[in-house]
Design brief:
The protein is built from five helices and 35 strands. With 561 residues, it is mainly β. It folds into two domains: 145 residues, Jelly Rolls (Sandwich); 335 residues, Tachylectin-2, Chain A, CATH 2.115.10.20. The strands form five sheets. Strands 5, 6, 7, 8, 9, 10, 11, 12, 13, 14, 22, 23, 24 and 25 form a 14-stranded mixed beta sheet that branches. Strands 2, 3, 4, 26, 27, 29, 30, 31, 32 and 33 form a ten-stranded antiparallel beta sheet that branches. The longest helix has 23 residues. The chain is globular. The relative contact order is 0.15.
Length: 561
């Protein structure tokens, strides 16, 4: 009997050790954990070392220890951080988006959207609303329209608008249904152009009924709320709900095209920081109860300044992300108050600003620019006084410009009544392509030398603004000797090919570790890339896409499916 008990104990011990080993042994080899840019992910992924209570900025391991050689085959290489920079005396400038003068471009027009209600207790008016909560912004090559999935009216009825140029929008003929189990709180759409099943081309995450077995709806003021996933060919008819798990009321998701993973940005509340985000990921969209596997991700930190007229500590209201060229662009919704009960008393919207962040592994965020990328005006009578939101997909690429849809709240309905969620509309902001950051030189020549990089292409392109200046480039070999020298160039172009002295291209240096040395006078350098395409396709990702690429990736026409 004792022998049998000992044997059973031994077996259980072995099983326990095996179970622990299975949880801590890396599932992937170093090769499989090495990303397109040379970054090697840690064995434990996603990382579990986030400090929930810390207000320090997020640590970014790959900036502290960059790869010895950085592959640059995917996308335009942006100067938003020091990942690519070995040495420089150029000055980095960050740039905010410019609001479109014709805003708003979508306003409440239907009877349902214009409907107004008033809360019997707070006397806050609501309605006269079209909004992005989160909605979605994607180019659809099927009919060659840019599309905005949005919500309208007090019931937050789903709808879609379309545009050829990204500026002028109309309600499209597509009919978008609200799944019967969805609660009108928030929604997040994603147009998946890589979907293997056409019936899953459009993806949705939304707050849903408490559980599939329960018939009652959640009271939206309660937390946590249950979320669910849905898929559809076009939004007219949705699949059955797949439970996502529970979280606070404003969670979302995005696709990381570099790692081929669906990532979930999950709202949580942790006093005293309050609104923060948790993270989970899956290979397939809509893994049941994926929220339950989440880890702490990120919140606002000590570098996020309070609104001096309010004084509340900033909070992270939401975080969306999308692949842009060679990195993940994050849109941080920084909430600076007032608290909801104060907004109700004031009958005025919350102050939320959109701020940009950048990630090269999809998890760790560098946020070197803390000024608003798109700000609430805080101005009485302005359509975007507060409550600024960004859609999933974040941006369109149209020619030389990036177009950022966003929604805002005036706090006023047409009859003059006010409320913290009253009077919401959708507008646009624009930015030069790759224009998040530039490396600048004045009349005194400056130099930027990259870290060692490698490429399989042969044509060097730059995004340069130097109509009165000049840029020339040298390529240094492993020994630091000049292996190629360019002709000087000048001009203002988002795609300028660099010509070489005594060579047609950089083909002889393909596959070899080299450094690029840029000499700049009176100009701004936004990005560079080396490509096999003589016309300058970067093979990078384009946010929600655009008409020039006819999709979400910048590839030559011959490479398109």
């Amino acid at each position: 009997m004792k022998h049998n008990a000992f044997s059973l104990l031994l077996v259980l011990s072995v099983l326990l050790v095996s179970s622990i080993a299975a949880q801590t042994t890396p599932a992937d080899s170093i090769t499989e954990r090495t990303l397109y840019n040379g970054i090697v992910l840690p064995e434990v992924w996603p990382p579990r070392d986030g400090e929930v209570m810390s207000a320090e900025p997020m640590k970014v391991p790959y900036l502290d220890s960059p790869p010895q050689v950085i592959p640059i085959d995917i996308g335009r290489q942006l100067f938003v951080d020091d990942f690519l920079i070995g040495q420089t005396d150029l000055k980095r400038s960050f740039h905010s988006a410019e609001k479109y003068s014709g805003n708003p471009v979508l306003v409440a027009t239907t009877q349902e959207e214009l409907s107004i209600r008033e809360d019997s207790k707070s006397k806050n008016a609501g309605g006269a609303t079209v909004t992005l909560l989160h909605g979605g912004a994607f180019y659809d090559p099927a009919d060659q329209f840019m599309k905005l999935w949005f919500s309208g009216g007090n019931s937050l009825r789903f709808n879609v608008a379309r545009s050829r140029d990204g500026i002028h929008w109309e309600r499209g003929p597509d009919k978008i249904a609200n799944p019967a189990t969805v609660v009108p709180v928030n929604d997040c759409f994603w147009l998946d152009l890589e979907a293997r099943d056409p019936a899953q081309r459009l993806k949705l995450q939304a707050v849903a009924r408490a559980k599939p077995s329960e018939k009652h709806l959640h009271k939206v003021e309660l937390s946590p709320l249950y979320h669910a996933f849905y898929t559809s060919a076009n939004g007219a008819k949705w699949s059955n709900a797949v439970p996502a798990g529970s979280s606070s009321d404003y969670s979302s998701f995005f696709y990381n095209p570099f790692r081929k993973r669906w990532a979930y940005s999950i709202k949580d509340s942790v006093p005293p920081r309050h609104r923060v985000r948790r993270y989970a990921e899956s290979l397939e969209f809509g893994t049941p109860n994926i929220f339950d596997t989440s880890v702490f991700w990120v919140g606002a930190d000590k570098l996020d300044q309070p609104d001096p007229k309010v004084g509340d500590a900033p909070q992270l209201y939401s975080l969306g992300a999308v692949g842009y060229e060679s990195l993940m662009l994050g849109m941080f919704y920084i909430h600076v108050g007032p608290h909801n009960n104060v907004c109700q008393k004031l009958k005025s919207p919350k102050h939320i600003d959109l701020k940009a962040g950048f990630s090269r592994d999809g998890f760790h965020w560098d946020r070197p620019f803390r000024e608003p990328f798109i700000a609430s005006t805080r101005t009485e009578g302005a359509w975007d006084k507060g409550y600024i939101h960004s859609p999933a997909g974040i941006l369109f690429v149209v020619g030389d410009r990036l177009i950022f849809p966003y929604s805002g709240c005036s706090g006023t309905v047409p009859d003059g009544r006010k409320g913290m969620y009253a009077g919401q509309s959708i507008g646009l902001a624009t930015l030069r392509r790759d224009g998040f950051a530039s490396m600048d030189a004045d009349s005194h020549p400056g130099v930027l030398t990259t870290r060692p990089v490698s490429f399989k292409g042969e044509h060097l392109f730059v995004n340069l603004n130097a109509p009165q200046g000049e840029l020339h480039v040298e390529v240094l070999d492993e020994a630091g000797q000049v292996a190629a020298t360019s002709e000087p160039v000048r001009g203002d172009s988002t795609k300028l090919r660099i010509p070489w002295k005594n060579a047609a291209s950089l083909s002889k240096l393909s596959g070899k570790p080299v450094r690029l040395r840029f000499h700049l006078t009176n100009g701004q350098l936004y990005s560079f890339w080396v490509t096999p395409d003589a016309n300058g396709s970067s093979f990078g990702y384009l946010g929600g896409g655009g008409p020039d690429a006819n999709g979400v990736r910048d590839v030559p026409p011959s490479a398109k499916p």
